[in-house]
Amino acid sequence: MARTVKHLSLHRIAGVELRVVADVEDGVLPIVEIEEAVIRKYVRRSQPPWPHRSVNLFVLEDLQPLVHQLKQQQAANSLQPAATGDMPVVNVYDLADLASCNVFVNRQVMAREGYWDDSLAIQGLLAHEHAHPLAENVTTRASRELALPKVALEGPSLTGCSLELKDRLQRLLVGLATRLCLYAPREIFANQMTIASGFGDALLYLDRRNVTNASRSVQGRDELRRQLQQQVSQGNLTPTGSELVLLVGDLNSCLDLALEIAPFYRAGREGDARELEAMLEKDVFSRLEPQVAQVYAALRDQYVALDMNLAVAATRAWCASILDLLAQVLGGKGCSYSIAWICQIAKSLSEKC
């Protein structure tokens, strides 16, 4: 379906040409003003130097046009179309030519998450996306050379589970493993760059909200447990299978926050990191099984220690250590999902973030 352009403008900020295209009317100008301020602040940094001569800012009702384009180019692009459509802001750029970048703002997701009218949240989101090309290094490039092969989810706890449930667990675990392993270097270094570039308060504000969202997501855990117990009583699920489903839900609810909190330690803002972790302990971990907090802490430590100069072989070994943490916690529930040893070098992905 063709989109009607409702806003088109051109701005020049500190030698950078900002082109704005929007298919929504309300709320565009505040986003443009925040984007201009973010660009100015990054341009003032001497190291690493701002690489773009132009920025294309698309403020769209949703990102279906981008998702469609990514699907057409999926073999040559590291962005995942389905995941991209559910992101509030996305920066698409070409590592081979950083003269320009394309920033997409998703109005629907921004409104759903409560960001659309929140200037500090918008600043944090835009600053994080612009940090990605500035934070590129040997390790982030090496991470693009790795892929997870398809491996069937199996184990005694899945005996009697429907194919639909197995498929859902498979998708959740592969998605979690991909985020915590393959995408982790890009997110960690981008967050660290965001903080080091003077946007730490905005990022901290966003992460406080992320922890609050995680606490809300676990509030429905008791009801999920009740539903699973009903499935067990009906013979549709084993007791250990029920516990596995709960565990996978728990892991998905909060482990991503290690990617947000570790960069504060890396950037020397330990007080902010500990504040977020205190919120996590009180509002999230206290409601979950102890192994969730344990695997979070192990992930955080790995992320804090991540070196930015890892070649492909070293990055693969680092990814395997991350996946091993997941394999161990899943193995405790009888799920033999041996992803610790299956991260392998795949075809080189397109140099697009």
What would you note in describing this structure?
With 353 residues, this protein is of the alpha/beta class. It folds into two domains: 7-134, Collagenase (Catalytic Domain), CATH 3.40.390; 146-345, no CATH class. 57% of the residues lie in helices and 12% in strands. Strand 2 (16-22), helix 1 (28-44) and strand 3 form a beta-alpha-beta unit. Helix 7 packs across helix 14 and helix 11 (257-266) packs across helix 13. It is globular, with a radius of gyration of 21 Å. The two termini are 26 Å apart.
SSE blueprint:
Blueprint: E1 7-13, E2 16-22, H1 28-44, E3 54-60, H2 64-72, H3 81-84, E4 89-94, E5 97-106, H4 107-112, H5 119-134, H6 138-143, E6 146-147, H7 163-182, H8 184-217, H9 221-233, H10 239-254, H11 257-266, H12 270-283, H13 290-304, H14 312-331, E7 344-345
Parallel strand pairs: 2-3, 3-5
Antiparallel strand pairs: 1-2, 4-5, 6-7
Helix pairs in contact: 1-5, 5-8, 7-10, 7-14, 8-11, 8-12, 9-10, 11-12, 11-13, 13-14
> What share of the residues does DSSP label as strand, in percent?
5-15%
Global Rg: 21 Å
Biggest sheet, strands in spatial order? 1-2-3-5-4
Count of distinct structural domains: 2
Quick check: average pLDDT? 87
How far is the first residue's CA from the last residue's CA?
26 Å
How many extended strands? 7
Query: Major sheet: size, sense and barrel closure?
Result: 5 strands, mixed
In percent, how helical is the residue content? 55-70%
Can you tell me the residue ranges where pLDDT is under 50 for at least 5 consecutive residues? 338-353
